[in-house]
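Hi everyone, sorry if this is the wrong subforum. Our group has a chain we'd like a structural model of before ordering constructs, and none of us has done structure prediction before. Sequence below.
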Amino acid sequence: MSDRPVPGTFISRIVVCGGGLAAHLAAAALARQLPRSIQVVWVKCRDPRDTDLFYGGVVGPTAYSFNLLAGVSEPRLILGTDTAFSWGTRFDDWGENHRSWVQCFHLPFPVVGGVLYHQHLLRLGVGELEPLLLPAAAARRGVFAHPPENGSGPLSRAEYGYQFNPYTYREPFAAAATSSGAQLIAADISEVECREGRIAALRLADGQSVTGDLFVDCTGVDARLLTPLGVRAPEGRRLKAALSHHPGGKLGPPCRTLMARDFGWQSETSLQSGRARLTAYAPESEAPALAAHGATPSHHAEVVIGRRDVAWAGNCVALGHAAGVLEPLTHAPLLILQREIERLLTLIPVSPDMSVERREFNRQGAADHRHAENFHRALFETQSPFDTAYWLAARAQPLHEMLAVKLTQFASRGLLVAFDLEPFNAEEWTIQHFGMGRRAARYDRLADQQPMAEARAAFQNTEREIEKLVTSMPSHSEYLANLIRYLKQKQW
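Answer:
Right subforum, don't worry. Here is the predicted structure as tokens:
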């Protein structure tokens, strides 16, 4: 952090509003990364809708670097919350063929002889990718170890994220925000005073008036700052969710399990403190969904899946659920929030007009949300065994043109069509294609340059190497217990 002002900027005060996960992450990142000439004020107000459960329970590899940016190290996260490690999400009983696969994290797949890895698999008629992916094999076996920073072998190509409770994950960020100089005001907002399409001041319930140059709306789906500026709420599919935590027991696998149900889906996530169950369902199916959920939910909410037309209007920028909500099928909800915060840091306004920054923020944000929605919509390109409200609504919208191109080109010749700055990479799309059972009609003929026997032997060797390695790895529970013991000895 620098004491020097940002060249050309007029910003001297940024006001972050909200009490949920988005506000915690935004306040910490802004306070730590911006120069001290810009004051960060955090108005920590309540979220009456309590929608943080829609961030899901898993976040991908980008969380490590984002958390450091916000001043939260991995040891601090592990020791200060009930967060555990994650290789990804295991989908179970999914679609018409009741598919099961691990949507894992992975570094770029190797290019063999100038040909993409999966093209060789298509040539050999290999239908399952998982045995060739260490994170997937390790997730199924319930084992974990940190990938080495330098080295070779399957573990060096693995990537990991975290399994988290959105109501405890936030806490280290609160401490990081205040230690980085954020001014904390714990009060609710009673009025948003607007003039000429901009926020002039916030009137708080305790009588204070808070002014600023830029306001960051992290107040959840109500968007209590953005809405008075005339930005309409999104229209789309309504979704409900219930979350319960079951304390105690041995730490389970480093992989969230997500199971298809007639009312929607249900996930189980292992945490240090126990097990979290998240049940997502259509409002019409509430009775059977809550019956299947079991325990009385600790958190329960209803949202509209979708994004507002703009997330930045006037001098107010919305982050997280104030901008839009994604279904927590994957790690997308928290990934998109992280990207929004990082984008804001690069677009701190340099003039009161803010039009250039506003336009770019809205453009990139809308693209991120669309790409994430496409990845999720692709999960429903299968006949569901359930003819119920959730499954009908999930498939009701026609495929977006970009998604149609992706699916058509992969089905035709295994081509991975990519668009600029997509939040999901080629490896994640490849894993989804194979996991869903999609098969290409033909492969890249350049793969024929490698002798068939040689190619088959190489993949068999990789599979044996992975199998041998995962059998030697410690269980998730054992590894995390030893790590915590080590960190405490080192007095982190």
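For your construct planning: Residues 1-6 have pLDDT under 50 and may be disordered. The chain has 14 helices and 23 strands.
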